[in-house]
Amino acid sequence: MGLLPPGPGAFREVTTELTYAGYKIPKGWKAFWTVSTHKDPQYFPNPEKFDPSRFEGKGPAPYTFVPFGGGPRMCIGKEYARVEILTFLHNVVTKFKWEKVDPNEKIKYEPAPVPVNGLLVRLQKN
To answer: Is residue 87 part of a domain?
Structure first.
């Protein structure tokens, strides 16, 4: 979703006249809102890299990551996707036995403790 959302953006109607970057945008105009911020290094360092940690803590600035759009016309599938992910995680955690691939995995501190090789695991159905 972050790298290639299903749609590139959407048209929205400007509800209040505004000036942006020196340009006057009248009320009623149609503006195209885009997901290009997903790949903007100003907001996401290394935007092509899969890095879920970028969403930890405060996460990205508002309206820079919008895979489901925003506002009253946001994608109706947003909540479905959230529940689907939670259901998947619940099943992986409760219905599989987790085993470390390398039981002697070393830990490095940067500043929090993290496994040197990323903590590879083998899943086996219970």
So the answer is: no
Number of compact structural domains in the chain: 1
The tens place of each residue's pLDDT in the chain, 126 residues long, gives: 455 666 677 888 899 999 989 999 999 999 887 878 888 899 988 988 888 888 888 888 888 888 887 778 888 888 999 999 999 999 999 999 999 999 999 999 887 888 999 889 999 998
Distant-in-sequence, close-in-space partners of 1: CB < 8 Å, separation ≥ 6: 67
Ligand-binding site membership of 65 (annotated): no
Residue 115: inside a domain: no
